[in-house]
Amino acid sequence: MSYAVKNLIEGDRELIAFRIGDQEFCVNVMAVREIRGWTPATPLPHAPHYVMGVINLRGAVLPIMDLSQRLGMKPAEPTARHVIIVAQVRSRIVGLLVDAVSDILTVDNDDIQPTPEVSSDLERQYARGILAIDKRMICLIELGALFNEAAESEAA
Which helix (H) or strand (E) holds 154? Predict the structure, then answer.
């Protein structure tokens, strides 16, 4: 039995951890298509405040979202050090601007602690739990909840 199959059977999941400012977040690795360097985006008129614009990704138009702004944090000021996580959210492919990718984590479902009750309503909508790993607190984000149908139709 392969390592990946064994992990799935035992309830482990793989997550990609990334930084925005001084906070760490993670998403399911299965949603991530690729990680690429920052490319300036062409702005779109009347786009939601967190949509930076679009880029050409091998002939396809890819919307780029400032994940820090979407999470209610201050807007990113992208530099060459920033990265774009190309992810699938439901049937759409989106680019998520983050400061840096920090880790690939393999965690057991038991390692994911519930989001504290003191969190805001917005945070409880997208946060699926907190990981406490090596003195780090990493928030597990559910991309489908973060970019719900209303937000997706705004961006379209």
Answer: helix 149-155
Q: Residue for token digits 């300036």?
A: 40
CA-nearest of 150, 139, 31 to 95 is 31
* Share of the chain residues as helix, strand and coil, in percent rounded to the nearest 5: 20, 45, 30
pTM of the model: 0.83
Helix (H) or strand (E) holding 69: helix 67-70
Encode pLDDT of 25-72 as tens digits: 999 999 999 999 999 999 999 999 999 999 999 999 999 999 999 988
**Residue holding tokens 């880029």?**
55
Task: State the first-to-last Cα distance of the chain, in angstroms, to the nearest integer.
Answer: 43
Please tell me the number of Cα atoms within 13 Å of 33 on its side-chain side: 14
